[in-house]
Fold this protein.
Amino acid sequence: MTVIHNASIVQKYALMFMIIYLTDVWGLGITHAAGLINIWFGMTKILALVFRVLMDYCIGSYSMLVISSTANALGMGLLSISTPSRLYSLITGSCREYNMKCISETQQSLFYLALVLIMIGRSACAAAMETLNFIGNADEKELRQQFVKSGSGYAAVQATLLVLTPWSVIFAVASFYNSIAVSLLMEKSWSHKLYISNPERSPVKSVVRVFVTSKKRPREMKISDKEFEDAQVLVRMLLVGVIYAFFVLISTICTTYFYQQAKRLKPSIFFRFEFIEVSYLAWYFFYEEIRIKFKSDNRYGNKVDLRALVMGATINAITCCAIAAVVERTRLGVIRKYGVGDIPGEIIPMSRFWLLPQFGMLGYFNTNLDPIRRVLFFEDASLPMQNFKEFVFNGLIGVGVMSSVLVVYLVGKISEMGGRPNWFQHDTENSRLDLFYWALIVLCILFFNIWFHGSNYLNKRLYPRSRPLGEQKIRRR
């Protein structure tokens, strides 16, 4: 499993700057590029739930690993070929500069085909790996420590691959790692020793059965207590998962536009663009390591007030957006002062060090989302239900990421009212991201109030005798 995990780490790094590739090489606007990648990423998360259901009935864990590794290797290979690389230039005689003039229609078709294959590969890999992680492994602390270690390795791989600047080389390296994973999985002598047991079936059928039989009379309902409890846990999780999906939406928007802010800022010896990106990951895993050590998310004993966690995450989101708005206002002031906004490729005389506070706050905000997830993830439930809940949460993440595209579109349309210019232009130098960040703050406040009063209504109306949504009990391991 180690080689598959390492291949996934390299692939994540290669895909990290896909939006920058589309804006710099393809010449797409920031809104168009971010919308394309966010929809693709959201579909990847949602498709993992579909593959998890398929694993219950027709595809085994081992077959799913082979399918995922093969699709990832082919997808990253096609992605490398779709770039104007030196090898493609020697074969076809085309130019090899990284701009849209050197990308043929065939390469554009290969690019979209590569995205589809990578989406299938990453979804299938998530379905197989998440399921295997649950077999015989239900220790919360151990799972969290493995998460931090894998994240530390993720940052280390990124720091190692910083020297690989050509896009074709970065994508080719990721394809090479996945090809190694395929060869090891297909090798008979190695795969014969690999023991992969199929997991317990997910409670999809039992949950659907509960909802169908609930339409009948109480005497005709022939369901077990376990099936009813699983259905109740899933409904509670979906109701609370709405606010989690909203926070994912905020995190996606901030991550996308923070990187675009840093693209043309003045680099220095210690604060290169890649250093800022790695520092964001370092802050994230540093906060997570502290949380694991001191158990700050469970300091109130065996019960956690979910509404307090949501309020804390909302405050962090507001702080992050406020810092970003102030920095963006300063950046736009520097652009107007020196008149470098309309000069392509011109460096803005402002240090990238200015972006470190908002990246650090973004890492802290993302860290505080994990307790909200674990409150429901480690709630009293059977192991198959816990496994299935993980994929439902991934589906909610996909919904949140895809919803960010809709939010940007609606805010842009609203900003055009009255004949005013759209806040989102072709590049960030002519956009008004500072106003957009303030709009996100207003949206956070409104959504929190709606969710808070809605949860109180559900506590009183829908669950008068059950555990309220605002107070969840963490199962002791």
Remarks:
- Residues 235 and 428 are 41 Å apart (CA to CA).
